[in-house]
Amino acid sequence: MRIATLTSVAALALAAACNSGNEPANDLSTDANLAGDMAANDVLGANAATDNEAAVAMPTDANGFATAVAASDLYEIESSKLAATKSSSTPVKELAARLLTDHQKSTAELKTAASQAKVTVAPALDAEKRAMLDQLEGASGAEFDRLFLAQQKTAHQKALALLQSFARGGDTEPLKAFARKASGVVEGHIEHLNGIRQPS
């Protein structure tokens, strides 16, 4: 009986030692993943969506959707104006001119659809987009171009997800129709972005 007990104790001690040896490796792996995530966010030049943020449900109510789209359009308009004066790249300037025209049109169409849905649109930047513009304002030359393109890719993916989500599950038909139409425009912007070579 005593031998069996000693054997059990030894087995438990060995298991604990093995588990203890694994924990630092797991911690290092987690730290490395966190560091990688932080670095990726820095490169994007924006507060890129974390896994938790990505899991947050998109607005399906008319007010929430209109507010989010208006903020997205306003960021696109203001960042494109910056690119028109600060960019050193012809392809970036051409993209910015397209974005400025299309997102000004999008805002006008959003206001029309929102009016039909009895929703008021007052475009205003949220904290994330204000921070993105601040980063662009502090950059210049090739650094600005890289930052602008990285932000645009992130912003357009988020905008497309927002539009497609509301087109499927929104609560107001005029805004759902707007979302369907705007999705096609944003997809065109993403295609344009993917065709631009990253400045060196």
Provide a short characterization of the protein structure.
Helices cover 81% and strands 0% of the residues. By secondary structure, it is mainly α.
What's the topology here?
Layout lengths: L1 H43 L6 H5 L6 H25 L3 H27 L10 H11 L3 H29 L3 H22 L6
What does this structure look like?
With 200 residues, the protein is mostly helical. The protein folds into two domains: 1-44; 59-194, Ferritin, core subunit, four-helix bundle (Ferritin), CATH 1.20.1260.10. Helices cover 81% and strands 0% of the residues. The protein is built from seven helices and no strands. The protein has helices at residues 2-44, 51-55, 62-86, 90-116, 127-137, 141-169, 173-194. Helix 5 (127-137) packs antiparallel against helix 6. The longest helix has 43 residues, at 2-44. The protein is elongated, with a radius of gyration of 24 Å. The relative contact order is 0.13.
